[in-house]
Recover the amino acids of this structure.
């Protein structure tokens, strides 16, 4: 039998990873909600940010949290560049073209990383990588707690931005009705560009803050994109609030299934849930059916 | 017609004569290219002709690989027959999946995600299924037994792969001219309009997935006999699916020759590079994949119909 303290520990780690997953998924779902593009390369953008953070740490001894000053603007710009060079040209193409072209971007990032760094797993050791704070029956790993706090703050900031600012409202208007938004004066192409860049930046933020306790290789992106799919669908594709709830849910499911059943079967269960949701509630568990 | 037939026969004659001049390494590259072309054509039946963009065809590929292999190891059934059993099984699974998915009217991107999820579930189950040796996979012993689909040399595999591709091209051409194929196209172009003009769209889509699944399974069986090792990590991952999609979308979806063109270009050249005696083979292979990724993006942006439309355009001009 698994003791209560072990379960609590697992739930805590589920909460931490779930928060990071939520941030990744929100970047993905924001891009889909606004531009209608399913970005298969989203997980590989996380991977790319992990490598940039890794290099900054190894070459300039820059702490992953400090390196955000470089990583965030860099990836906002990279997202904008990617949008202008590639995504913009396929916005009006069918979904199959979206999938294939973003798969091309995925392969581009993966092979570029593989060429530069090789396929081995790499990691960094910061002063707080193995530190933890004992609170009652559980130990709180500081690096993971930090990643979760930053992720949740970012999610909150994004939500406030979308609700309160003029640009945020323009983004939501364009997501809701592209033609209508254009008619009332929203600069839709600019909104698309900014949404894609913001989504990329969200992926980069998540990638940077998990570096202190995660290993990176050119192939880690696949796991992130699969998680983002599942979470975004659970929460209702395009819904930011839904993605937050979905992220936490998947974090808990993952942590508990690794306790009670094998990890590979846990993955199968997660995808079985995905299929059930897509069949019965394609608008997500937490969302409302759009009529 | 006669000119095209002559061209086709000439290409076939050249392909049949290739082993006479190609060494074993080059022949391997040809086999990989033909195998990829076959898979692409099989996926193309559902994704290209009927517009059902499945991301879960690795599931059917894996069923083919495991069915022929398990039937051979447990019952001694020759894989020549086992591959047909695998095709029937994959076809049934495909039909069952399609019935479930279409009953709930899952379409477009949601359809793609459901099929992707189905393949992921299958991989998780296979990893935990001891009877098929879980994640360890199954090793087949190399032997000289043509009656059991084992050959010591590359040439017989090459001719089997070539025969599969030729058969698949003929099936595609036949489909294009058939009533069923017209239903597929109608569903792809405008499902509501097809339904309104009396096409049973659910049935057409279900047949498309079932047929495509069964045809894909043959490729899985071929993989098992050619590489002599299968595992969830080789046949039930995204890799086979990616091979099918790249070849089809680069060459031209919904055509009988586009997927062949795309596969030969993408899979065949990659394999050929792998076997050339470069100083840094690893870098060359990764570098070539990088070039392919850029090519994929550029082709899909500027030639959304695939490379095959280049020929059409110049003919019209």
């Amino acid at each position: 039998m698994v003791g209560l303290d072990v379960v609590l520990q697992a739930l805590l780690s589920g909460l931490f990873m779930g928060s990071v997953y939520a941030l990744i998924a929100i970047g993905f779902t924001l891009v889909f909600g606004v531009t209608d593009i399913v970005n298969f390369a989203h997980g590989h953008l996380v991977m790319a940010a992990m490598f940039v953070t890794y290099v900054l740490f190894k070459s300039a001894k820059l702490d992953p949290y400090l390196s955000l000053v470089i990583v965030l603007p860099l990836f906002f710009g990279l997202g904008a560049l990617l949008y202008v060079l590639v995504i913009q040209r396929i916005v009006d193409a069918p979904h199959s073209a979206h999938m294939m072209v973003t798969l091309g971007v995925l392969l581009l990032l993966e092979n570029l990383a593989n060429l530069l760094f090789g396929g081995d797993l790499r990691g960094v050791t910061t002063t707080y990588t193995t530190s933890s704070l004992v609170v009652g029956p559980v130990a709180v790993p500081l690096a993971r707690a930090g990643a979760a706090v930053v992720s949740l703050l970012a999610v909150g900031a994004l939500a406030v931005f979308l609700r309160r600012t003029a640009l945020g409202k323009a983004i939501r208007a364009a997501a809701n009705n592209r033609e209508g938004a254009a008619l009332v004066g929203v600069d839709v192409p600019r909104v698309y560009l900014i949404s894609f860049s913001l989504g990329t930046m969200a992926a980069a933020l998540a990638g940077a803050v998990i570096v202190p306790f995660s290993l990176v290789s050119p192939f880690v992106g696949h796991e992130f994109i699969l998680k983002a799919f599942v979470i975004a669908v659970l929460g209702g594709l395009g819904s930011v609030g839904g993605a937050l709830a979905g992220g936490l849910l998947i974090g808990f499911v993952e942590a508990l299934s690794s306790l009670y059943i094998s990890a590979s079967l846990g993955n199968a269960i997660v995808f079985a849930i995905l299929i059930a949701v897509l069949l019965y509630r394609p608008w997500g568990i937490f969302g409302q059916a759009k009529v | 017609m006669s000119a095209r037939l002559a061209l086709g026969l000439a290409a076939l004659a050249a392909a049949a004569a290739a082993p006479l001049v190609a060494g074993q390494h080059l022949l391997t590259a040809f086999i990989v290219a033909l195998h990829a072309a076959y898979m692409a054509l099989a996926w193309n039946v559902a994704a290209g002709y009927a517009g059902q963009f499945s991301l879960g065809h690795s599931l059917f590929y894996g069923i083919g690989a495991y069915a022929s292999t398990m039937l051979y190891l447990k019952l001694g059934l020759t894989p020549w027959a086992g591959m047909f059993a695998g095709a029937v099984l994959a076809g049934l699974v495909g039909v069952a999946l399609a019935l479930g998915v279409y009953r709930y009217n899952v379409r477009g991107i949601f359809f793609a995600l459901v099929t992707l999820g189905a393949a992921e579930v299958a991989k998780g189950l296979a990893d935990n299924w001891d009877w098929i040796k879980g994640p360890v996979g199954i090793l087949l012993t190399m032997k000289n037994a043509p009656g059991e689909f084992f050959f010591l040399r590359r040439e017989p595999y090459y001719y089997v792969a070539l025969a599969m591709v030729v058969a698949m091209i003929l099936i595609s051409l036949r489909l294009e001219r058939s009533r069923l194929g017209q239903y597929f196209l109608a569903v792809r172009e405008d499902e509501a309009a097809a339904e309104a003009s009396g096409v049973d769209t659910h049935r057409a889509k279900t047949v498309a997935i079932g047929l495509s699944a069964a045809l894909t399974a043959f490729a899985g069986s071929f993989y098992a006999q050619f590489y002599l090792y299968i595992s969830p990590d080789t046949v039930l991952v995204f890799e086979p699916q990616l091979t099918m999609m790249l070849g089809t979308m680069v060459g031209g979806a919904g055509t009988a020759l586009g997927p062949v063109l795309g596969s030969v270009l993408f899979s065949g050249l990659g394999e050929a590079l792998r076997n050339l005696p470069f100083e840094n083979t690893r870098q060359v292979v990764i570098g070539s994949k990088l070039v392919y990724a850029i090519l994929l993006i550029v082709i899909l942006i500027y030639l959304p119909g695939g490379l095959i439309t280049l020929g059409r355009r110049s003919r019209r001009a």
In short: The beta strands of chain A are 132-135, 138-141. The CA atoms of residues 4 and 137 of chain A lie 9 Å apart.
